[in-house]
Design goal:
Layout: E1 7-15, E2 18-25, H1 31-34, H2 44-59, E3 65-73, E4 84-93, E5 99-107, E6 110-119
Antiparallel strand pairs: 1-2, 2-4, 3-6, 4-5, 5-6
Length: 120
């Protein structure tokens, strides 16, 4: 779990079709010593894990990623220059146990991450 160590929640809100969150990345986390020295970048796998954790946290239900539709990393996120990321998570069902999720991250006023995945 990355929540509480790699990142913390600043604020959240919910709407009819999803959630919005502002999170603060821990720029001193040891993962940045190797990814990458002197130029820390949030690993893509961490960005995907954050979607799963925030979805679980905000929905109150344990959610697990089953498959992705797409994952796009549009820009790198350097927590040493700005450690706040804004997340939008849009949720829709397809009539069974699968939940479709579309997520985006904004960092430094730029969209840096787009994701579509299916959770159970």
């Amino acid at each position: 779990m990355l929540l509480g160590n790699f990142y913390t929640i600043i604020e959240t809100s919910s709407g009819d079709n999803g959630y919005r969150a502002r999170v603060q990345l821990n720029a001193a986390h040891p993962i940045f010593e190797g990814h990458f020295p002197a130029n820390p970048v949030v690993p893509g796998v961490c960005q995907i894990q954050m979607v799963e954790e925030m979805l679980t946290q905000l929905s109150g239900k344990k959610m697990q990623l089953k498959t992705t539709g797409y994952v796009k990393f549009l820009h790198t996120v350097n927590p040493a220059t700005n450690n706040v990321v804004e997340m939008d998570i849009v949720v829709s069902g397809n009539g069974n146990e699968t939940t479709e999720v579309n997520a985006t991250y904004v960092w430094n006023d730029k969209m840096v991450f787009k994701f579509k995945g299916y959770f159970e």
